[in-house]
Amino acid sequence: MDQPDSHVAKAVADAHRREWAYVLAATARVASDIDLAEECVQDAYVSALEAWTRVGVPDNPGAWLTTTARRKALDTLRRNQTLRAKLPLLVEPAGVPGPADLVIDDEPIPDDRLRLVFTCCHPALAREAQVALTLRLVCGLTTTEIAQAFLVSEPTMAARVTRAKKKISAARIAYRVPEVHELPERLDAVLTVVHLLYTTGHTAPSGSALVRRDLVDRALALVRMLHTLMPDEGEVRGLLALLLLTDARSATRTAPDGRLLLLDEQDRDRWDRDAIAEGRRLVLDALHGGRPGRFTLQAAIAAVHAEAPSYDETDWPQVLGLYDALAQIWPSPVVELNRAVPVAMMYGPEAALAVVDDLAADGRLDGYRYLASTRADLLRKLGRSGEAAAAYQQALALADNDAERAFLTRRIAECADSQP
Predict the structure, then answer these.
(1) 206: three-class secondary structure by DSSP
(2) Residue 67, class by beta-carbon neighbours within 10 Å (0-12 exposed, 13-18 middle, 19+ buried)?
(3) Which of 7, 152, 205, 332 is the S-S candidate for 156 at Cβ 3.0 to 4.6 Å?
(4) At 356, which CATH number?
(5) Residues near 252 by beta carbon (within 8 Å), at least 6 away in sequence
(6) Model-level pTM?
(7) Residue 60 pairs with which residues in a beta bridge?
(8) Cα–Cα distance measured from residue 121 to residue 129, given in angstroms and rounded to the nearest whole number
(9) b/e per residue 245-269 (b: at least 16 CB within 10 A)
(10) Structural domain tally of the chain?
(11) Whole-angstrom distance, CA of residue 356 vs CA of residue 346
(12) What is the pLDDT of residue 420?
């Protein structure tokens, strides 16, 4: 094998980030189980290093990888002489195409990704297993990255993912978009994992870039597909609104030098007003459609921020009221932590610090870096620079994203400079 040059290696790495979900979902249609599909996709990426070094990077890397992975899956099934026996598990009744019949469109087939999401979010699996499996298969995250997100060891997470895939195979869970009557028991899980996919991309857990745009775009594409499929579902509208309103600020989250900018530092004139207008319409539709769910309420909070002329002029009483409503239907320590921000704006940092200290004492957010950084910010505003520096140090020890680490390091230096 020729040694791949840096251009080819970069192209393969880029294709892994952008195309993994498409390639795996399409391969799963002709494979008999997800393990086989995943193995064939991994082999296709290895083959790409050799082939693209010899003949150059194809115009459509995703199509090349999909064709290669699907052919590997078919070859494996034929060698094992089990193709016909395994077809009912993941392949539609129309049958499986042979290698000569494979046709890959210039654009990826979105239904394949949606099928994969719904497969991972089957109610036969525990919710944590649904989320972990989706992060592995749809997001292409490593087991290490998923373990960090769940605050568990890598072997523990590897075991969870393995058990989930085995259960899909053993229970003969169909690889398809559910029928209408099956949607209610799966929809919340699907929305949850799409939201988690977006948040993973919105602030990358590690690396030099603040944002993983490939994951953000993938989440937006999935939720738009869901909205097309279920236009009358209020929480689908709510999640789409939340993602649009949040992403509208993406261009202003960092300074030209890469420095992280908080909400009160961002140039609101550069926010995407078209996305804000669309998100606002969706929020209003969702709110008028009945009792709002957790994504709709989060979208309403984002809409209040998007409409405020400045950070200080935000309608903080409305934000606090929405957080109170959100806490009623979705009791969560993260919601309580986020609620501390409007509490601080309305009643002062001392009142908010009491909320955060209570959260720290109950232990549910142990290891969550934003607990430490929120506490540090409140202490800084109260002039308690030494305690603030220690809390920032705690947050720094938990942060792996370079932009966040640089921000926390600057805060620590500012606290040191302000001490007598």
Answers:
(1) strand
(2) buried
(3) 152
(4) 1.25.40.10
(5) 261, 266, 267, 268, 270, 271
(6) 0.82
(7) none
(8) 9
(9) bbbbbbebbbeeeeebbeeeebeee
(10) 2
(11) 15
(12) 66
